[in-house]
Each structure stands twice: as C-alpha cells, then as structure tokens.
Amino acid sequence: MAQFKSKFPKNFYWGGATAANQIEGGFDADGKGLSAADFVEYIPKAERTKDNAMEITSEQIRKALSGESTARYPKREGIDFYHHYKEDIALLAEMGFTAFRFSIHWSRIFPNGYDETPNEAGLQFYDNVLDELAKHNIEPVVTLSHYETPYGLTERYNGWVGRETVDHFVRYAETVFTRYKDKVKLWISFNEINMITISPFTGGGILSDKEDNPMQAKYQGLHHQFVASSLATKKLHEIIPDGKMGCMLARMTFYPNTPNPEDVLKAQKENQDNLFFTDVHARGEYPKYMDRFFIENDIEIVKETGDDEIIKQYPVDYITISYYMSLLSSVSPEGEITAGNLFNSLKNPYLQASDWGWQIDPIGLRVTLNDLYDRYQLPIFIVENGMGAYDKVEEDGSIHDDYRIEYLRKHIEQMKEAIGDGVDLMGYLAWGPIDLVSMSTSEMSKRYGFIYVDKDDEGNGTLERSRKDSFFWYKKVIESNGEEL
C-alpha cells in the first residue's frame, strides 16, 4: 500500500500576527484617543494575586485619568512599532512572510469612538504600513477590533453594552474599508470574540462594576458585537466585492478527564460554550443549546427588530482561531491545576507545559482543526499560535530558542496532517513574530518572537531588534512551504 503524504497547498499563507495595542506605542500621538488597553497596568509577577488581572475597575480608570495612579501602562508604549514599522516589516520580509496580521487601533481613526469625522493622521499611518507591506509582497490580514475599544465609548455607553456602539463600529468599519479597499482583502471583525464573556473590559470596554447584572451586560454586549460583525460584513461585501470577513475564536478544546460519562458530558458542554461564538458567526443564528444557559443564568438578550435576520443574512466567509493549549473537563477537579491564558485546567499528565503553565498539545491542534471543519465546512485560518518563553541573550548577542522551534515544528506537523485529513486550511500566522507586550500580563519577558526586542518588564532597553535562531529556522520553513521543518 502506498504511503499517504500530505503537503501544504501552494497558496498557503505563512507569517505572523500582532495587535496594535501590544506593539504600536504612540498611545497619544497624532490625535489618537485612549482605548481600553491604555488602562491595563503592569503588575510584577511576585505581586499578582489572581490569574485574571485583565479586568479594570471604575476607580482604576479615575486614578489613571486624574494622574493619581503611579502604575505603569506598558501597552501605551508597546515596542514602538509606530516609529519602527519599516524596519520591522523589512525583518518580516527577510523571513519570507507572505501574510502579516495586524489590527487597526480604532481610537487612532476615531479618537473617542463616536466622532463624526475620522482622524486623517491615523488613516495615513495605516496607509503607510500597508504600502510598506505591499512593497515586500506581504498580504495584510487586518483585525478591526483587537481589545482596543475606544475609551470614549466606555465613558458614554459603557462600551458594547450600549446599542449605540454598533453604529459607531459600522461607521468605523465602512471608513477603513473605503480607505483601504485596494490594499486589504482579508479582514477579521473581532479578535477572540469570546473574551467579552471572560474579561468584559478587555473584550468590550465594559466596566462590570457599573452594571447591576454583569452577566447580563456582557452577553448583551456580545449580542451587539454579533450584529456589528454582520453589518460590517455586509459593508465589506458592498465596498470590496472580493473581500473576505473572518470571525475569530480563542479555541479552547476540552477533553474529558476520565471516561466517566459525567466528565464526557461536562467536556461536551464546555466545548459548546466555546463554540457558541463561531456557531453564531458561521451558522448565522444562536444555537438552541444556549437557551438553557440563558434561562439558568437569568439572561435575556434584548434584540432590536431585524437583528436575527441581519445575523442570518451576513455570516462570515472564513473561520480564524488562536490555538495555544487544550484543557481537561472534570466533575471532580482534584489534582494539580495548571495555568492558562483564559482558563485554568487540571494538569494533563500526557502533556508538557510552557514557562507560564500553558499545556503544550500539538495533536490537539489537529483535533481542533478537524472538529471545526466538520462543524462549519468553511476555510480555517490559524491566526495565532506560539510559545511564550524566557529568552536568554548570549554574550555574542545570539539567542538559542530551540524550545520555540520544537513547539512550532510539532504544531506545523499536525497542521500538515489535518490538511491530509481534508481540512481546508488557509494559512498559519505565528503569534508575536516580533517580541511584544503580553496581552494577559503586560510583561515583555514572556516572549514569542523570532525577533528579539531589547526591552524589559520595567520598560528599560534600547528597543534594538535582533534575530533569534528561530528566525532562520522559520525562514527555511516558509521557503520550503512547510517541507523543511
């Protein structure tokens, strides 16, 4: 019997992904307004008291605005991509990137979110970035909202809780579609849209302490994002007929901890809770399994006439995901608990973990891709995957990150297997190809990049860029279209 050999398609996208709030800096430059990310404080690891430090209170906002706070806000600084974008894009091109995902900082275009006219300096900045990418033949993949809700919308409407935010988002989307219609074909509406139910301020600019029923508020905000995404998709297809809109999910694949049917049932429910977001985006309707959840949690989604029809009529064109780990489901969660980006989980004895406790599961990526393709029959694009780790700079300036190479190699191998299984996979964008400020902890020491940035957790450093061993390895991967790993 001949041995089956899977290959990546010729038009497969290879590259990396970033977020404006984690790389740009220039938080108040050239007319930019404040966003949710600009209020995220850096808390040293030894001083953290809870796993999820991403939520912000009204009092923290007040102190930040009044100048009373002595906290550092690393996402205001990023790695100064705002002034280094040409140099950074040249390095990505040197690796051979065929695609680069970045986000537009909404408050760089509409400083308060609700402004009548856009900020020309902000629009011009992204024109410059896109022109630089085009010069190097790198396809842009642009996220409209990546944890960057303008603070003006939080102040006026409590972010996405207010229905008015839908119209402001659609105007923003229409503005950038019109401006960049000849430069961008691949778009994503909301980064990891499930974040709004985990950290409402991060995902939706919602201050939970202003709400009598925070659970109701975050699912109401989510509904508004669903409607906004569909309306933006409608605008995209009108303005850029060959443009494609993707949704984005932080995919958390749950395994039952044991063959106990109760564990199996719990895993099924937790997978449904995670896939709910793409079910709405791709299938165009709320799944029936959520009815019980809403009743049991006293949630009643307020919908305007026509909302269900809008969601049904304008689903997404492709699915995008972040994938970093798998988790275990158990009705008797006894044992060692491991860390995670959005969730904690029982430790899986068959898996290793990163320096931050994220369980490394390459085969889980193949499982995830097959499950998603079976469920939706839409093209899938991995737009985040990578390993945050401590990197050591040697005396000669070299950085030997074999652990990162090994992580990426194993995941790419499983992607190839998934393609052999029949999955329509568009591409692979490694997270943080250049070191950036961590989303969840605002650290610099949690490094993902192929490119090292000389900056530490306290904000010290020259910002000099240098190539790690993984830089040269990934260059060969791209040159060989995934054959040389």
TrEMBL record:
Q: Per the record, a Pfam family?
A: Glyco_hydro_1
| Keyword terms, alphabetized | Glycosidase, Hydrolase
Q: Which organism is it from?
A: Peribacillus huizhouensis
Give its E.C. classification number. 3.2.1.86
> What is the recorded name of this protein?
6-phospho-beta-glucosidase
Its lineage reads: Bacteria, Bacillati, Bacillota, Bacilli, Bacillales
Record's keyword annotation contains Cytoplasm:
no
Provide the family line.
Belongs to the glycosyl hydrolase 1 family.
Which major enzyme category is it?
Answer: hydrolase
Q: Is Hydrolase found in the keyword set?
A: yes
The UniProt entry, under InterPro entries, shows: GH, GH_1_N_CS, Glyco_hydro_1, Glyco_hydro_1_AS
Q: Which SUPFAM superfamilies match?
A: (Trans)glycosidases (SSF51445)
Q: List the catalytic residues.
A: 384
The molecular function terms of the Gene Ontology recorded here are: 6-phospho-beta-glucosidase activity
